[in-house]
Write a structure and sequence with these properties.
With 429 residues, this protein is mainly α. The chain has one domain. It is globular. Helix 17 runs antiparallel to helix 19. Helix content is 77%, strand content 0%.
């Protein structure tokens, strides 16, 4: 590792420590590296522009963001909630189960953990508080935990980003995320059932069976969205980016045309907010691409690969070590930065050790999502605290049990790759 790279990295972390946004911290670090190395500073801008505009797959990111925001703005969330209450609300700790199932369904539309937490998550927290049986800390904590499922079940913005840096099939990654997402939902429902019995959480009034078909029909247009999205991709009719465009259009038609719940003013606000979110993500992606250029120039991935290969480490030990590192980094770094900056360093080693890149990618994305609820950074904890005014300490006090079961689920995915790989292999990927 050259002295120029060391100076650049120190500048990056120093800028971040001073409060500069991550994207700008990366840019400053790269510019310092180029300056010290005597290279043309224009390389940074040229690399950023070329790689952003050459990345057709990246267009899926703003389109999924638009889709999620339309879902939150329309009455789709309410219809999904009514459906989930009818299905699982009758069990002990019913609203906790509703929380999990709603996230499972909504994840097939948004691809964003923050969108799930700030949108439909806020509604469920209010419901849990008004029911009288749940503490506000518990309601917020289980909402944060269930929101981590959003980017695992397709569509998934982090999966798109991982596909970008690893050249892995996005179709395989989307398929591989389905069972792990359901698995995470299952363990969260299990722990909610245990806690509900211990704390004597109540039931929701059972919805009469005769009303369930009507509730299902009203929710059907929203429930069909992930089906339309995935069938387009796996039939070969659309690319993932085209499918994302169809998803956004379908969300607009359902919310504005069918449900008539989206006014022109609201739609403008949705587009403005989506543009802001997409621009923020785009800056991080662009800055990360420049940093990747620098890392490749310095042969860092090859150095890491040689280090692990020389140590004769087993694939399992490598997976455990990398995931421990990602888990620790997830306490202080954003998931996007981890996927775009840190993960590419280990891709060559994975290839040499014979680790399936789809398995590696899904596990890393799950790990990065767990980082969203891991103190002290835990961006989902801050988001939920901000939108609900629930004190952060109350949320953190309740999050640990959910964090523990999600870590156990992650360990199971590492130890048993078939949890991740069964579905893509069964369908010929």
């Amino acid at each position: 590792m050259s002295i120029e790279l060391i100076i650049g990295i120190l500048t990056l972390f120093g800028s971040a420590a001073l409060g500069l946004p991550v994207a700008f911290s990366i840019l400053v670090g790269v510019l310092v590296y180029l300056g010290v190395a005597g290279q043309d500073l224009a390389i940074a801008g040229e690399t950023m522009v070329q790689r952003l505009f050459d990345g057709f797959l990246l267009l899926a990111v703003p389109l999924f963001i638009v889709s999620a925001n339309i879902m939150n703005a329309g009455s789709i969330s309410d219809r999904l909630l009514n459906f989930c209450v009818a299905v699982v609300g009758r069990f002990r700790g019913g609203l906790g189960h509703v929380n999990v199932v709603t996230s499972l369904i909504f994840s097939g539309m948004s691809g964003s953990a923050v969108a799930d937490a700030a949108g439909i998550g806020r509604i469920i927290i209010d419901m849990m508080q008004k029911s009288g049986g749940y503490s506000r800390g518990y309601a917020a904590a289980i909402t944060a935990a269930t929101a981590t499922i959003g980017p695992i079940i397709p569509p998934s913005i982090p999966m798109v980003l991982y596909a970008l840096v690893s050249n892995t099939s996005i179709g395989s990654l989307f398929l591989a995320g389905i069972i792990p997402g359901l698995f995470m939902g299952g363990v969260l429902m299990a722990i909610n059932a245990v806690i509900s019995n211990r704390r004597d959480f109540g039931y929701e009034a059972p919805v009469p069976l005769r009303k369930i078909p009507g509730i299902t029909v009203r929710a059907a247009p929203a429930l069909l969205m992930p089906v339309i999205l995935l069938s387009g991709i796996y039939s070969g009719v659309t690319t993932p980016t085209e499918a994302a465009a169809i998803a956004a259009l379908y969300a607009l038609i359902v919310a504005a045309g069918l449900y008539r719940a989206l006014k022109v003013k609201t739609l403008v606000e949705v587009f403005v907010e989506s543009a802001r979110s997409a621009a923020s993500v785009g800056l991080v992606i662009g800055a990360s691409m420049i940093l990747t250029y620098v890392v490749i120039q310095e042969n860092v991935p090859q150095m890491i690969s040689a280090l692990f290969t020389g140590a004769e480490i087993s694939p399992l030990a490598f997976m455990l070590l990398v995931n421990l590192l990602v888990l620790l980094l997830g306490c202080v770094l954003d998931a996007t930065v981890i996927i775009l900056v840190i993960v590419p360093l280990f891709i060559p080693t994975c290839t040499q050790l014979g680790i399936d890149l789809v398995h590696f990618g899904v596990v890393i994305v799950v790990n990065a999502m767990i980082g969203l609820i891991t103190p002290p950074y835990g961006i989902l904890l801050f988001v939920i605290s901000a939108v609900t005014q629930i004190p952060l300490n109350e949320i953190i006090g309740e999050i640990w049990i959910f964090l523990a079961v999600l870590l156990l689920a992650l360990l199971a995915m590492i130890m048993f790759p078939e949890i991740v790989l069964f579905l893509p292999r069964a369908l010929g990927y």
